[in-house]
Amino acid sequence: MAESSDLTPASLQLALEQRLDATHVRIEDMSGGCGQAFEATIVSSQFIKKTTLARHRLVNTALKTEIAQIHAWTSRCFTPEEWERKIAEL
C-alpha cells in the first residue's frame, strides 16, 4: 500500500483519467500540503444517466485504495454536457 505522502493531486488526477476515462479532472489539496484532504471536479461520460449517488460510488470504487488513505474526500461529478453548460455560465 502506498504511503499517504505518495498521494498527490497529480497522482489522483492520473488515476481518475485512466480509470474513469475522465476528460477533465481538477484536484485541490485542501489539507495545506499534507495530502490528507482533497476536493475533486471530475468530468466523465461514465456519469451519463447516473444519479449523484451512483456517480460518487463509481468514483469511490475507482479510487478505493487511495480514498482509504485520505482523511477527507469531496468530489463533484459532471457529464461532459453538464460541464459544458456549467463553464458557459461563468
Question: Helices, strands, pairings?
Answer:
Layout: H1 9-20, E1 24-29, E2 37-43, H2 52-62, H3 64-67, E3 72-78, H4 80-89
Parallel strand pairs: 2-3
Antiparallel strand pairs: 1-2
What does it look like?
With 90 residues, the chain is an alpha+beta fold. It is globular and about 35 Å long. It has four helices and three strands, in the order αββααβα. A hairpin with a 7-residue loop joins strand 1 (24-29) and strand 2 (37-43). It has a three-stranded mixed β-sheet. It has helices spanning 9-20, 52-62, 64-67, 80-89, and strands at residues 24-29, 37-43, 72-78.
What kind of sheet is the major sheet? 3 strands, mixed
Strand count: 3
Strand portion, in percent? Answer: 15-25%
SS summary, helix count: 4
The parts where pLDDT drops under 50 for at least 5 residues are: none
Helix content: 40-55%
Defining key terms:
90 residues, alpha+beta, three-stranded mixed sheet, 3 strands, globular
Summarize the structure.
This protein is α+β, with helices and mostly antiparallel strands and 90 residues long.
